[in-house]
Amino acid sequence: MLNRETIAIIKSTVPVLEIHGTTITKRFYERLFESHPELLNIFNHANQKQGRQQTALANAVYAAAANIDKLESILPVVKGIAHKHRSLGVKPEHYPIVGEHLLGAIKEVLGDAATDEIIGAWGEAYGVIAGAFIGVEKEMYEQAEKQRGGWEGFRAFKVARKERESEVITSFYLVPADGGEIAAFEPGQYISVKLAIPGEAHTHIRQYSLSGSPGEGHYRISVKRENTVPDRPAGRVSVYLHEEIEEGAILPVSAPAGSFTLDRGDARPVVLISGGVGLTPMVSMLRAIAEMQPERKVTFIHAAQHGGMHALKDEVDGLVQDRPNFEAYWVYANPTERDRETGAFHKEGYVDLPWLKQAAGTRDAGFYFCGPQRFMRTVKLALKEWGVPAEDIHYEFFGPAGGLD
Q: What positions does the entry give for FAD binding (predicted)?
């Protein structure tokens, strides 16, 4: 436990972190990779290039400092990050390395303002925070390995089937290469896929939501092909999967992880809202409800650019048409003439609060949503304006967590 003096020093640095947080975390990653380039095999290079990882870490450090006297209040955030760490293979021996370079970055950026007293207090605080992560992740590693069909680290999976779902999304059906059982998962969780791309100095790890149902004997991921931009590696992995990975290929995969999961203990209506490839965890949730809670009222809302970019539509339509308490609505930002001729969508434009109220019918429900950050911000603000309680609002970021307020 931290003493009062240390807590006071940490809290006094909160305004400084609010101003310089991203600069500190940017320098932290530069120091980290200069000293330990092998860690580039774990971290997402695209998120580094785009600054998303630096911003997410800055927000996490800021939250830890602001809540240093009541760390239990950010335990849900800790668990969400710990799930990602376990899925990527972050281990206890990595934490001292991170601590060394984080403190070094604070000292470099703040200069003389980072007194020995402040650096000492942050060293103590980091030790407590790192200990919390290590403890939570230890339990997660043990659970992942010891569960039925579980395993440690990465396991070889074969691409049993590859199926194009839309102009930009392709599904990969993965089965264990050793023919053994696979671990169950909660609807909304993800797996990590590790790729060694020819010509690349480091491996790439990407986390993809599972879009199928638990208990099927395979994992299904539905991957969007991202556009590549010079000097930005955002699309490198998805393009490689789409263009180079065929049926029969072997991919190293980690056991399912993630804290964005469907509350199956809640019998109230559920509203599943997605944009773009954010529909993947929503489809998994819809399938699970259809199998395990078929009496539950479900409203499924998906936003896409147009019908050509709308993946898994027939699958969702099939689940909905056989269940009178299930409804699905499609929102197209730029519908094609064919979309108009066939009546393929329910709303042109974007999801807004008046329409959402009409589609959902009630705010006494569990709301789950996922998609591009701007889309998620719009949905969250609409739900808050409607008066939906915070405990009924659930969402997932693809990649490092960002801000929606």
A: 190, 206-209, 397-400
